[in-house]
């Protein structure tokens, strides 16, 4: 990424592009350029060795004109207000594209979660919630999992929020374990949703999915479930990776067997019958479909030209830099942008919230069916707009996402 870019300047440039294309009122553009609320707290906890640990906690609430704030909480070293603000803005567009009644938010704690014990992580999560509790709630702001947080983290959030309010409130957070009100199918929803988009896009570019070669960067929750869904459709998953490196096998991998190997050895590398590769090599690997499902800024002006895939589906948030975006467009690579490709997670979060509010529990079949309907509709809304506007899919996704939010602001008016 060129040094002048930060995640927020990229997000603001994307908004500017959508605003220009939509001929947006300049006042509304100004409103949407900044978050409604940014919260910075010091999360202080007692460490296991009796010293005090001090961690920076952030929650950014972008805009809530279409419904309460919604978005994940990530535990990550060096997380900044700039980055969380950009991610909150992307959540606003993502919820709008998925057409679910939420505004965007994002949270984070600046911590290397791998270095903390389970007890320390629990105290960290609970202390963070206690510091921002007045800004959370089922009709205010509903957190969810993100990088290095999971269903257990969400259970601690639900318990802390409920204890502080005095009664059990499962609808205050999504991505919970099923036994305390979590939805069936939430864990796999983001990865599955990515593959629903891939399926729709493949039909448009005449790519046969049977034996199509898929390379996936990242083998966490999203990467693994995308691999499993692609494998289920008959694709050949030829490469996967995690933070320690990747593997390539032209004959195709079984994602479940790779997961078992990773659980045993701590990494996907050295899996039998495979060649070890680096994360950089995975991006440039011979394949039909490339799925970056790990960190930001993985496809850059340095490697975009070397990508061999015909399709890139952005399972991660922000994996492609603006320069790389242009290169992929020139190479006529079909790019499914993050705010569309990975909206399956927040969509099933919405289903979870609806189930909690109505005290219902849906079957996995029902959740998966509704997810597929929502993803297919979102993909086709964006795709049709890109055809009408003769634009790339990212521009069309932004236009759709920003356009719906802008129209809500216009209808609500500016109070007082
Ligand atoms: N963290 C996920 C995302 O970036 C899910 C958010 C949610 O379910 O609220 O989309």
Describe this protein's structure:
The protein contains 14 helices and 12 strands. Among the domains are: 32-170, Rossmann fold (3-Layer(aba) Sandwich); 189-332, Rossmann fold, CATH 3.40.50. Helix 1 runs parallel beside helix 3. The mean pLDDT is 97. With 416 residues, the protein is an alpha/beta fold.
Please summarize what this structure is:
By secondary structure, the chain is of the alpha/beta class. Helix content is 46%, strand content 16%.
Which descriptor suits the 3D outline?
A: globular
Low-confidence stretches: none
Number of strands: 12
* Computed Rg: 21 Å
- For the largest sheet, list the strands in their spatial order: 9-8-7-6-10-11-12
The helix/strand order is HHEEEHEHEHHEHEEHEHEEHEHHHH
The overall pLDDT, averaged over residues, is: 97
- CATH domain fold name of the domain at 189-332: Rossmann fold
CATH class annotation of the domain at 189-332: Alpha Beta
- DSSP helical segment count: 14
Strand content: 15-25%
Bound molecules: glutamic acid
The biggest beta sheet is recorded as: 7 strands, mixed
Q: How far apart, in Å, are the first and last alpha carbons?
A: 41 Å
CATH superfamily of the domain at 189-332: NAD(P)-binding Rossmann-like Domain
Q: What structural class do you assign from the helix and strand content? A: alpha/beta
CATH architecture assignment name of the domain at 189-332? 3-Layer(aba) Sandwich
Could you name the key traits of this structure?
alpha/beta; Rossmann fold; 5-stranded mixed beta sheet; 14 helices; globular
Mind sketching the topology for me?
Layout: H1 7-22, H2 26-33, E1 37-46, E2 52-61, E3 69-75, H3 81-97, E4 103-109, H4 118-132, E5 141-145, H5 151-165, H6 186-204, E6 213-217, H7 221-232, E7 236-242, E8 245-248, H8 255-265, E9 275-277, H9 279-283, E10 289-292, E11 311-313, H10 322-330, E12 334-336, H11 338-341, H12 344-358, H13 364-389, H14 393-412
Parallel strand pairs: 3-4, 3-5, 6-7, 6-10, 10-11, 11-12
Antiparallel strand pairs: 1-2, 2-4, 7-8, 8-9
Helix pairs in contact: 1-2, 1-3, 1-14, 3-14, 4-5, 6-7, 6-12, 6-13, 12-13, 13-14
The structure holds glutamic acid.
